[in-house]
């Protein structure tokens, strides 16, 4: 099976890619300023992509951020707690930003107020192949991964590389998303371990299994920690709780895609809900991670107008 960006678009699914990632934050103004400074994202404007059918209350403030290949939606609720998801999960643990090595994005995150999770004084060279990795947390305790790339295949100072889920049963979750996307993961690893892995994760004796899906405009990364063991508990978090609360797939035909996914035993928690940008239907994977399908009224907000992966992901 080819590993190019066309895979998902020729798989029979109506999914175009990941339209936006939802993050609940304690202070929208501070969080959006952080992402502008640290990750070179653009603040599109106040407001929300989402309706109010999932949260127990509407956000008191919200802001849309734009990257080269996807959007982020920052939501501030009146009652929130800051409880970080551990590196070993379970759940939606981090969002990855990539930059050219000379851009020194890691330093930009530190200068904007982030604190390092990874050990050492900077990004870690895992294997001499030109990618340097580090995990950091912002003041909300939300974790980001920075990858500084010696020979980036993308243009510009930043690329949204992947969203990461950590599961206690990676095989079950890979099977689920293979059915959702209509493709297999382009890569799987059954033993990621070693001193450099410890440095990146900030965990002693870390050992993981992993899989990666090419979802047209970015990658979905799935991990299972063998040591420390990813807990066998639900990854579901209250929508209002500070941290990642959803990722949204843009679809070209909502009715068709819901019918297809229901036939694959995907359970939807809502009928399509009216939102400021179209309609959205929420579902969850077997671990409880929340995702949605989004069909837009205004094509100008489509990821069709953003960048896609045009290189083989290796």
Please give a handful of descriptors for the protein shown.
314 residues, alpha+beta, 2,3-Dihydroxybiphenyl 1,2-Dioxygenase, domain 1, 9-stranded mixed beta sheet
Shape assignment: globular
Structurally, how many domains make up the residues?
A: 2
The third-level CATH topology of the largest domain is 2,3-Dihydroxybiphenyl 1,2-Dioxygenase, domain 1
What's the alpha carbon Rg, rounded to whole Å? 18 Å
Beta-strand proportion? 35-45%
In whole angstroms, how far apart are the ends?
Answer: 13 Å
CATH class of the largest domain: Alpha Beta
Low-confidence stretches: 1-6
**What can be said about the biggest beta sheet?**
9 strands, mixed
Structural class: alpha+beta
CATH superfamily of the largest domain: 2,3-Dihydroxybiphenyl 1,2-Dioxygenase, domain 1
Element pattern in H and E = HEHEEEEHEEEEEHEHEEEHEEE
Count all strands and give the number: 17
Architecture of the largest domain in CATH? Roll
Mean pLDDT across every amino acid position: 92
| Relative helix content | 10-25%
Number of helices: 6
Characterise this structure:
The protein has 314 residues and is α+β, with helices and mostly antiparallel strands. The protein folds into two domains: 15-81 and 239-305, Roll (2,3-Dihydroxybiphenyl 1,2-Dioxygenase, domain 1), CATH 3.10.180.10; 91-227, 2,3-Dihydroxybiphenyl 1,2-Dioxygenase, domain 1 (Roll), CATH 3.10.180. It has helices at 6-9, 28-39, 105-111, 170-181, 195-201, 254-263; strands at residues 15-25, 42-46, 61-66, 71-76, 91-100, 115-116, 124-125, 131-137, 143-149, 159-166, 187-193, 207-214, 219-227, 243-251, 273-275, 278-284, 290-296. Strands 5, 6, 7, 8, 9, 10, 11, 12 and 13 form a nine-stranded mixed β-sheet that branches. It has an eight-stranded mixed β-sheet with strand order 2-3-4-1-14-17-16-15. α2 runs antiparallel to α3. The two termini are 13 Å apart.
């Amino acid at each position: 099976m080819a590993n190019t960006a066309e895979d998902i678009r020729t798989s029979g699914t109506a999914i175009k890619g990941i339209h936006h990632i939802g993050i609940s934050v304690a202070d929208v103004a501070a969080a959006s300023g952080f992402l502008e400074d640290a990750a070179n994202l653009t603040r599109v404007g106040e407001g929300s992509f989402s309706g109010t059918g999932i949260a127990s209350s509407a956000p008191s403030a919200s802001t849309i951020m734009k990257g080269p290949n996807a959007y982020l939606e920052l939501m501030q609720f009146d009652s929130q707690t800051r409880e970080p998801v551990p590196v070993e999960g379970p759940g939606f643990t981090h969002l990855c930003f990539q930059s050219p090595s000379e851009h020194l994005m890691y330093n930009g995150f530190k200068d904007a107020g982030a604190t390092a999770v990874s050990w050492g004084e900077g990004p870690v060279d895992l294997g001499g192949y030109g990618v340097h990795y580090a995990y950091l947390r912002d003041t909300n305790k939300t974790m980001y991964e920075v990858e500084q790339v010696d020979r980036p295949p993308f243009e510009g100072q930043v690329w949204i590389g992947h969203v990461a889920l950590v599961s206690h049963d990676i095989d079950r979750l890979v099977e689920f998303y293979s059915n959702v996307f209509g493709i297999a993961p382009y890569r799987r690893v059954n033993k990621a371990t070693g001193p450099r892995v410890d440095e990146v994760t900030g965990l002693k004796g870390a050992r993981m299994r992993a899989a990666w899906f090419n979802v047209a405009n970015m990658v979905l990364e799935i991990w299972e920690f063998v040591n420390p063991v990813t807990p066998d508990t639900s990854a579901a978090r209250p929508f209002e709780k500070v941290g990642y609360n959803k990722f949204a797939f843009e679809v070209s035909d909502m009715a068709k895609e819901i019918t297809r996914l229901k036939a694959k035993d995907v359970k939807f928690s809502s009928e399509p809900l009216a939102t400021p940008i179209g309609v959205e239907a929420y579902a969850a994977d077997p671990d409880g991670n929340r995702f949605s399908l989004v069909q837009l009224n205004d094509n100008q907000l489509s990821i069709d107008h953003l960048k896609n992966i045009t290189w083989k992901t290796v």
